[in-house]
# Entry
Amino acid sequence: MQFVSFNYGDTFPRAGIRLSNVVIDLAAAAPLAFETMEDVRWELLDILAGQPDGMGMDGAVEIAAAVLDQLGIASADELDTNIDTNGGSDSSFGDVLSIGGIEMVLPMSKVRLLAPLPRPSSMRDFYAFEEHVSTAARNLGRHVPTAWYEIPTFYFTNHTAVYGPDDDIPMPRTKALDYELEIACVIGRTGRDITEEDAENYIAGYTIMNDWSARDVQREEMSIGLGPAKGKDFATSLGPALVTLDELEPYALNDGRHHLEMVARVNSVERSRGTLRDIYYNFAQMIAYASRDVTLYPGDVLGSGTVGTGCLLETTGAQGPWLTAGDVVELEITGLGVLRNQVVA
# Structure
């Protein structure tokens, strides 16, 4: 299942389920499955937290099933053929599907996708791909610390500076702007001291993450022994959807990893290519470490760190060239879609 956040005629971030080229507005459709839930407004973070009344993600799936049942449709594919996703009204249902006078099923052309979690409860970013760590260290004249092989380390980044698909990224005060091609998992249950064996049960799903970086600022900060701070503080992109584990099962390996191809393009030219299977620490290990002596909450985001070759620091070296205003960056990961942003002055 693909969970999304979106705007439709207002600025409130609505929670939805994407089925092919349409979105089910979960709050609008809720009374089909839960009679007491009328006139509710939800963000996706509310659903991850089990609100209202402990409904959670399972309840959201029930709502989607109730919509299909009400329309007499057996699958998302059949729904997609009965709605004009280009916004016209020549199909049997028209361009927006209403049930009982309430608009519940919307073509993608009618909505604006946001980051799945426009305001996550927290964001940790790990450093889990050995190729990226070693190449970046070499380009900066350093060596990989021995401790990197002993703990899956992370830093906290700014959870209030999150951008979604097709959002413009304001150019920060830097001469060395870089993208970072990452995947992130989102926590779906409250937990503390989570074991690796149980960690998968705490994952709500995965999404694409772009950890934008000001390399010159980052380099100065980290020479002091702290950071990254302002070198990462200005923007992180997430999206386009939060994809549940069942959709990624065809790509699952037997060691907690997935074989997902990861590609970055700048102005339609491929600049990076890697795969999630090359990750040194899997997400179960990251969750176990992050939750040690600490409680993780629904909506917490854990980034993987950059895949090998997944940034300009690796592919062009410490001197660039770097991103400039007008550049369009597209990150694509198998099963997760494409996350596109343009840098603007």
About this structure: Residues 85-94 have pLDDT under 50 and may be disordered.
